[in-house]
Amino acid sequence: MQLDFFPSRSLTLYLAKMFVVRILAVLVMLVLVLMALDLLGNSGTILEPEGNGQAEILKYVSLRIPQLISRFLPYSVLLATLITLVTLNQNSEVVAMKAAGLSAHQVLSPLLLTAALISVISFGFNERIVTRANATIKAWEAVDYGPVPEDSGVRANVYLTDGENILTAAILTGAGDKIELTNVTWYARAPGGIISEQVRAPRATYAAPGWQLENAKSFDVGSAETQEIKTLVVGETLTPAQIDLQSIDPDGQSFWELSQTIDAFEAVGRRTTEMRAKWWHRISGPLSALLMPLLGSIAAFGLARSGQLFVRAVIGMALGFAYFVVDNAALAMGSFGGYPPFLAAWAPFFLFLLVGETVLIRTEE
């Protein structure tokens, strides 16, 4: 039996079923609690636009739940690991498995297999559902939960530069010459970056060249005067092709779409560090579930009667949460260019893989 990575079929199914049930229970509990807290803080804002009601609340819930599942699934795997292993330890089931000749890795193998399957499912869920929810909810938030133009290319919080000047828009729809900007602000800046004029408009379209602001209001910083302008053309050097590249939201694109975007940016010599780090993290992120049984394994071994079971569970939880802290910090550093993108996405994973193996071997093997 020592030469087999997995224990018997019955024991593998028993442990895997126990693990899956606890993952689902913890995940449902976390999502329900966090969704309730989220609604307490945002329901008033959602209902503020005229005509919004229960349907919009349900729409918000349907968009937020996939985000919460994606974000807290690894935490659920960690907590489920601790609950499962502590229960097995308290019931002396780990002792029985060890007495039958199973090694520590064989005891954990059903949990590792289950976590690997969850990682694959998580990747598919993120690509098919979460990315679309991200794009939709960002566009909806940009218009303060009002009506959003129906368009598959909706992007939110667009920030563009035209030399010293800045053009921002709450949402962008369409592509090419048919791009339409909503809730637009134009900042005209003097040399040195000082804002000399601010122009706001509800809508802007491509004027070939430039972007035509309609029903705009101009505020002159020097004279502190406000002026209404029916139409105004700004940003004459900004082309639709440049805007298509500058207004990309990596969180709203799938893995393959993001790959094409990175290639397009690199073809014109644009910086891709942040997008490349997020691209690598699309793989390493879901795989974090695979680490949780290993990091929480310290709770499985050692006699429950020794009085150290609670301490072991706390150590396992600390290792798991330390991974998430280091992972988020490394991804932030990668986005700012402090780390190479590959290192930012994968270094925490391999570091804690080695930490988990070391702890497991030193405490049991």
Q: What brief labels describe this structure?
A:
elongated; single chain; lipopolysaccharide transport protein A fold; 365 residues; transmembrane; 2 domains; 59% helix; alpha+beta
Can you offer a commentary on this structure?
It is a multi-pass membrane protein. This is Permease. It comes from Erythrobacter longus. Pfam families: LptF_LptG. By secondary structure, the chain is of the alpha+beta class. It contains nine helices and six strands. The chain has a six-stranded antiparallel sheet with strand order 1-2-3-4-5-6. Helix 2 (54-90) packs antiparallel against helix 4 and helix 7 packs antiparallel against helix 8. The protein starts with 8 loop residues before the first helix and ends with a helix. The mean pLDDT is 83.
Q: What order do the helices and strands come in, and which of them pair?
A:
Blueprint: H1 9-47, H2 54-90, H3 93-99, H4 104-142, E1 155-162, E2 165-173, E3 180-189, E4 195-206, E5 211-220, E6 225-234, H5 240-246, H6 255-267, H7 273-295, H8 309-335, H9 341-363
Antiparallel strand pairs: 1-2, 2-3, 3-4, 4-5, 5-6
